[in-house]
């Protein structure tokens, strides 16, 4: 019997159909994330902020942004509620470093806009922007101690967010630190605090409040006998240690709430006389704008106040 010519094997069509379905499924899964990425002109792979306390009135701030452009990009803008002095910036791309033209303009509500113009980034190209400037007003005095407050709300997703605060010799950090730092390093010349967050979503907020005063006392290295004693004590009171830790966490939370409660009462007293701009509250309370933002957010969540957008700031009302 002659062989049948030009006949496809019986199993090939189902196999091809299966591959086609898998391909369509992959497109369906990957398309949303790709479309979401295209909602922005660039992707922020990493965003880092470094604060170096030079003096009670001066802080050197450095911002590093690692981005990948989705379009032709030649400008990046950062907004801050604090003064910007001596700004300087560079663009790192591969092994080359290019200077960036920096312009600072005050916009509505007392906010400063930092415009950075740099050589064109084409779609798919990645670079790091490094901006450094000196600012004032981030350290305020409250209840006889100095406080450093930082607040940021992300307008788009960030892969890795990192904050570092360096406090020089001559200051001691006071408890509580809100929130607890992920890393603490101390030496005879400085104290370093770090916070890190991964996969930050658009609209997510981050803040920290650090109180400090006095002089930094470097910790003494404990002897090996202390470690032995701690080990034996841990075996004896292991269960009690866990219970003590729980009590410590509860006490710390109550301290954090009490820390904000006094300022809340002051704000409520001000609002009983009528609505007020959020930027004016910072002046009335004698605290930083970042701290006011944190307190108002807490009060809004409790249903004590409402806020309506007015320019680049908010008008705050006492909730009826």
From TrEMBL:
It comes from the Archaea. Residues 260-318 form the DUF7343 domain. The chain crosses the membrane at residues 225-248. Pfam families: DUF7343. It comes from Thermococcus siculi. This is DUF7343 domain-containing protein. The keyword Membrane applies. Gene3D superfamilies: Winged helix-like DNA-binding domain superfamily/Winged helix DNA-binding domain. Keywords: Membrane, Transmembrane, Transmembrane helix.
């Amino acid at each position: 019997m002659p062989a049948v010519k030009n006949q496809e094997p019986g199993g090939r069509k189902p196999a091809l159909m299966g591959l086609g379905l898998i391909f369509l499924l992959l497109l369906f899964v990957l398309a949303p994330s790709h479309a979401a990425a295209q909602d922005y002109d660039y992707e922020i792979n990493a965003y880092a902020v470094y604060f170096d306390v030079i003096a009670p009135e001066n802080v050197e701030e450095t911002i590093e942004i690692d981005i990948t452009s989705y379009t032709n990009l030649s400008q990046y803008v950062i907004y801050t509620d604090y003064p910007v002095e001596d700004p300087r910036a560079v663009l790192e791309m591969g092994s080359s470093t290019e200077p960036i033209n920096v312009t600072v303009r005050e916009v509505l509500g007392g906010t400063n806009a930092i415009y950075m113009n740099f050589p064109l980034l084409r779609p798919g190209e990645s670079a790091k922007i490094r901006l450094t400037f000196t600012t004032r007003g981030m350290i305020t005095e409250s209840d006889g101690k100095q406080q450093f407050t930082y607040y940021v709300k992300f307008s788009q997703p960030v892969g890795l967010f990192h904050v570092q605060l360096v406090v020089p010799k001559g200051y001691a950090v006071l408890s509580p630190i809100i929130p607890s730092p992920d890393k603490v390093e101390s030496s005879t010349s400085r104290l370093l605090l770090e916070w890190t967050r991964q996969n930050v979503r658009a609209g997510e907020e981050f803040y920290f409040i650090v109180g400090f005063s006095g002089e930094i006392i470097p910790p003494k290295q404990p002897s090996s006998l202390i470690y032995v004693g701690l080990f034996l004590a841990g075996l004896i009171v292991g269960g009690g240690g866990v219970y003590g830790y729980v009590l410590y966490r509860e006490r710390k939370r109550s301290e954090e709430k009490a820390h904000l409660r006094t300022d809340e009462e002051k704000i409520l007293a001000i609002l009983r006389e009528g609505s007020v701009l959020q930027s004016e509250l910072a002046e009335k309370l004698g605290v930083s704008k970042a701290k006011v933002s944190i307190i108002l957010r807490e009060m809004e969540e409790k249903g004590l106040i409402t806020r309506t957008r007015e320019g680049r700031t908010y008008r705050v009302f006492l909730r009826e």
